[in-house]
């Protein structure tokens, strides 16, 4: 029986980052991971593989849609699906091995196997019981099931199955117009599939700034994705020929069906804590299955903590990482903190969509006086050069103080541009602070500055 300062259960972005920081702060640290590789959902079946496929198919789209416009002529590439999946697996391998290397470098012990907590201060892996002053639950999440739909990961798949389909479907139905559904829908649309997205709500990407969501839907439709909104899926019938998705329109209760070769169920994720033994330990849980924690990630059991997708908050890798780092600092006797008001969200389609802070809808609901600075990428020379003038940057600032309250970007590299606003918000900056900062020309970032200028006396290139 080995004794550790910290044992973390789960080697995803929350767990592995927490472990590395704990070790850097001098704590004897172990991570329990049941998968064959480290990195959790994110590196194995989430963020990284989906971005690899988005990257490959984005290039395909560029070749077919934009190369000739730039005078790049010649034979167009065809898709070797097996090789594309191979590229994706290679990217996964490089990243998961990278975490293994970081564990060795930082002297983090990997306890291989599935862990449980038989008693406070103890973690069981296989037949061995290890003791720890602190235990961290970082067990992440799994796809939520949908009533009437049985997933077989062949014809009816979750995002995990969608990353390893045997062949590119001719017809793909995506249930759920959230981030994962739209990213995977984009991948297959670019590969030539007829993609229909069925969504229960009347708009795509719930929670997103409504103006951005509308624009995003229009752009995706131009790219060939079809949307059926306000539709409740009743069930999926699978036969040898494929699948039939039955849905009911909420506005008039009329029923209809859609044929598909593959159905992707992307209706959200739920915390995964099965097999840990939390019930017999008496760990308090929230109604939606998350481990209940206080502001310092502590559960109601002394020495037991939880982070990442297993607790409340946005199910995002960087949120899990930040919690992992903050908790490590707390366990080492320092002050760890996560600013939940400044957590960016990104959708990696083309164009990318990114947001941070409040939406206009939230500010209206709070009754807060605000101003909007908006700038279209049509006025950005660099964006037009890459055929991505369609989106915009929208900056929201307090009407009286000019303090930045939120930003919503749809356009090229939005997922990178958003961080300029994140840093500004962390420092309590005003829109004028951004507007007075010199931005290199020609960059996409100039659009952020122009939106900031639009919060004041006006943008220059609008
Ligand atoms: C298709 C897809 C795309 C995504 N894209 C993005 C993106 O672009 N950006 C983003 O920020 N987020 C993205 N996410 C979400 C992101 O993957 C999660 O928010 C993130 O992985 C959560 O990290 P975590 O450490 O809390 O848990 P996880 O990454 O889920 O890791 C938990 C780990 O714990 C292990 N585990 C569970 N129970 C036990 C046990 N009892 N014993 C041992 N090991 C155990 C699991 O095997 C798993 O490896 C995506 C998710 C999916 C599914």
Automatic annotation (TrEMBL):
> For the FAD/NAD(P)-binding domain, which residue ranges apply?
4-324
Its catalytic activity? N(6)-[(R)-dihydrolipoyl]-L-lysyl-[protein] + NAD(+) = N(6)-[(R)-lipoyl]-L-lysyl-[protein] + NADH + H(+)
Q: Which residues form the Pyridine nucleotide-disulphide oxidoreductase dimerisation domain?
A: 343-452
Cofactor dependency? FAD
Upper lineage ranks? Bacteria, Pseudomonadati, Pseudomonadota, Alphaproteobacteria, Rhodobacterales
Assigned EC number:
1.8.1.4
InterPro entries for the chain = Class-I_Pyr_Nuc-Dis_Oxidored, FAD/NAD-bd_sf, FAD/NAD-binding_dom, FAD/NAD-linked_Rdtase_dimer_sf, Lipoamide_DH, Pyr_nuc-diS_OxRdtase, Pyr_nucl-diS_OxRdtase_dimer, Pyr_OxRdtase_I_AS
- Signal peptide (UniProt feature, chain positions): none
What family, per the record?
Belongs to the class-I pyridine nucleotide-disulfide oxidoreductase family.
Mention any additional remark: The active site is a redox-active disulfide bond.
The alphabetized UniProt keywords are: Disulfide bond, FAD, Flavoprotein, NAD, Oxidoreductase, Redox-active center
Q: Which organism is it from?
A: Paragemmobacter amnigenus
Note on cofactor? Binds 1 FAD per subunit.
Q: What is this protein called?
A: Dihydrolipoyl dehydrogenase
User: Which Gene3D superfamilies does its entry note?
Assistant: 3.30.390.30, FAD/NAD(P)-binding domain (3.50.50.60)
As one GO molecular function, the record gives:
dihydrolipoyl dehydrogenase (NADH) activity
Which gene carries the instructions for this protein? lpdA
Q: Enumerate the NCBIfam families for this protein.
A: lipoamide_DH
């Amino acid at each position: 029986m080995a004794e550790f300062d910290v044992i973390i259960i789960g080697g995803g972005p929350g767990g592995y980052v927490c472990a590395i920081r704990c070790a850097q702060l001098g704590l004897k640290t172990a991570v329990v991971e049941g998968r064959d590789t480290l990195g959790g959902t994110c590196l194995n079946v989430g963020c990284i593989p989906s971005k690899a496929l988005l990257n490959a198919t984005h290039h395909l789209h560029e070749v077919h849609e934009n190369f000739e416009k730039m005078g790049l002529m010649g034979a167009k590439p065809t898709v070797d699906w097996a090789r594309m999946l191979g590229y994706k697996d290679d990217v996964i391998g490089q990243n998961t091995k990278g975490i293994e290397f970081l564990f060795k470098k930082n002297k983090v012990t990997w306890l291989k196997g599935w862990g449980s907590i038989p008693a406070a201060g103890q973690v069981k892996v296989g037949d061995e019981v290890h003791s720890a002053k602190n235990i961290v639950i970082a067990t992440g999440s799994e796809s939520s099931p949908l009533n009437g739909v049985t997933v077989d990961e062949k014809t009816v798949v979750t995002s995990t199955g969608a990353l390893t389909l045997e062949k590119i479907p001719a017809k793909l139905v995506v249930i759920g117009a959230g981030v994962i559904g739209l990213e995977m829908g984009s991948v297959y649309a670019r590969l030539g599939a007829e993609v229909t997205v069925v969504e229960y709500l009347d708009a795509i990407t719930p929670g997103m700034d409504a103006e951005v969501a509308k624009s995003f839907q229009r752009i995706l439709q131009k790219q060939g994705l079809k949307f059926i909104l306000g539709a409740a899926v009743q069930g999926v019938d699978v036969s040898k020929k494929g699948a039939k998705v039955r849905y009911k329109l909420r506005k008039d209760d009329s029923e209809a069906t859609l044929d598909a070769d593959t159905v992707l169920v992307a209706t959200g994720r739920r915390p995964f804590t099965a097999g840990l033994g939390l019930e017999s330990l008496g760990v308090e849980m929230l109604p939606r299955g998350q481990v209940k924690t206080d502001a310092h990630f502590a559960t109601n059991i002394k020495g037991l903590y939880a982070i990442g997708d297993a607790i409340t908050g946005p199910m995002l890798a960087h949120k899990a990482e930040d919690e992992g780092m903050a908790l490590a600092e707390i366990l080492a006797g320092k002050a760890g903190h996560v600013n939940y008001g400044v957590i960016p969200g990104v959708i990696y389609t083309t164009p990318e969509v990114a947001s941070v802070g409040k939406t206009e809808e939230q500010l209206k609901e709070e009754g807060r006086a605000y101003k909007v600075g908006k700038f279209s990428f049509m006025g950005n020379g660099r964006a037009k050069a890459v055929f991505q003038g369609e989106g915009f940057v929208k900056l929201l600032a307090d009407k009286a103080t000019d303090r930045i309250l939120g930003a919503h970007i749809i356009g090229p590299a939005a997922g990178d541009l958003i961080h300029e606003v994140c840093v500004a918000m962390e420092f309590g900056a005003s829109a004028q602070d951004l507007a007075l900062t010199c931005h290199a020309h020609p960059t996409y970032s100039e659009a952020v500055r122009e939106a900031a200028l639009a919060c004041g006396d006006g943008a220059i290139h609008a």
